[in-house]
Amino acid sequence: MTGQRLRALTYYRVSTKKQLETDYDPDGNSIQTQREDCRTAAERYGYEIVDEYLEPGNSGTSITKRPVFQALLKRVAEIGDVDAVIIYRRNRIFRNEWDAAITGRELSDHGVRLISANDYTDDTAEGQLVASVLDSINAYQSRAQGNDIKRKMAGKAARGGTPGRAKLGYRNVHETIDDRSVATIAVDPKRAPFIHTAFELFATGKHSIRSLRDALTAAGLRNRPTKAHPAGTEVSPSQLEKILRDRYYLGYVIWGGQEHPGRHEPLVDPELFAQVQDVLARRRRGTRERVWRHYLKGLLWCARCGSHLIFEPARSRDGKPHFYFRCARRQGGHCDLPRFPLTTVEHAVEAHYATITISEAERTAVREHLTEAIAAQQSTTKALRQRLRAELTRLEHREDAYLELVGNPDWPAEKLTRKVQEVNLERDRINQRLAEADTADYAQAAQRINALADLLANPRALYRTLPDDHRQAFNDLCFDKLYVDADEPDTPLISHADLASAHEPIRHYCDQLSAQRPSGKQKSRDSRRGSQGAPPSNEAPTVGLTGLEPATP
């Protein structure tokens, strides 16, 4: 290099971007300290600083994974307009002795000196020896600290604690125990209901990962907010799949390949988790299963041996599929219940509805309580609209605040544009939800309730008018199980149902609302089926998406 004044580049680095937010200065306390020491070193050695390179948020990584440092080396190699590179400390740049040796050799090959503002710097053989010793000591300390942290994290996991940041559905909190602040994990009341719902819906087999993600997003699930994304980002399909496979939500902590009982509260029970893993395993197979759907699947059981009836296809000689119901134990010769064609079973179920009667008093009770439910929903919708409009006002204020930052050198135009785009996206979503809330026709709903109550006078006639998906819902309301026997060799007969009559659940519902007896928690359909297993198919009963949004907003 020629010229009267030697030229130098300075390189500053912080481990995390949060270290840039520790002072009024946009670069934070750490960078400002590094800058002052490097400027002092430049004056001491007689260099003029011509450019600065700042590397934020690349903790513990090799120099090959630091883009800013690689840009500095590229400038040295291709432009060659500097005489030295000044750094704060060698251990701020080099995590091991190999990085230090490679960088030193590369700079030396281009005639550029490496100066550390706070370490001994000398270009003699003795100075190079001291630098290599410092690099070796720094590398040892870095590895020792890393091993110490790993041991402490493994010990915490073995005791049931959760190392690191809480998973989605939980939050990091501090509890005071014996005047000590203890870091622990608590259930996130805002997001935990979404996680449980995700497991429930996926266990039905009716959702793909992507469709489930879309439904949860529409219902309001977001990742925790950050400074860059105050409203929280959407959960990605891959993130959702990891959640569904993660035994942490079952109550376990996995660390270093070892599983330990956790101190945190599980969000799902073992049965539900196992059902989700079964669905995931079926979809992971190389050959895709063909799933045949029918509204009676999961409802029919054998009156002779108590096993469930399987819905299966068979093909005629011309290749057309024909469908049957058969007892699960018939194939091994353990049950003699005949195999019935689908249409005969459908007729048998329809005929069974002729045995059901619902009194006028019960129909009146249903009408009154459903009308009350509609009124309550109308009130909830009004409150939702008010909340959404308040959210729109908040977004407008945020957008105004961003627009006022236009021209501020600390807020680049690209960053402001991204922030405004996020606000617009969130506004579009809220407007869509507001439009959906405004389309509810409660007068029409009341008319339908009265018409439904009138139809309950003749359940069989009502059942005949229903489409298949509504028939499944009506069957679920009326029966837990229907037991099938043979009236004649090829004619099925519904011998009995688990419930004495179809109006028993309606009576129970009315009794609960009338407070004539203490209300109990109604068991789910799956839990009432007993120990004989899940529904005999790859599709469980439908779970509506209307229950996606948790009660806690």
From TrEMBL:
The keyword Coiled coil applies. The keyword NAD does not apply. One of its GO terms (molecular function) is DNA strand exchange activity. Residues 167-286 form the Recombinase domain. Residues 385-440 form a coiled coil. PROSITE patterns: RECOMBINASE_DNA_BIND (PS51737), RECOMBINASES_3 (PS51736). Transmembrane segments: none annotated. It comes from the Bacteria. Keywords: Coiled coil. Residues 513-553 are annotated as: Disordered. Residues 7-164 form the Resolvase/invertase-type recombinase catalytic domain. Gene3D superfamilies: Putative Large Serine Recombinase, Chain B, Domain 2 (3.90.1750.20), Resolvase, N-terminal catalytic domain (3.40.50.1390). It holds the Pfam family Zn_ribbon_recom. This is Recombinase family protein. It comes from Glycomyces buryatensis.
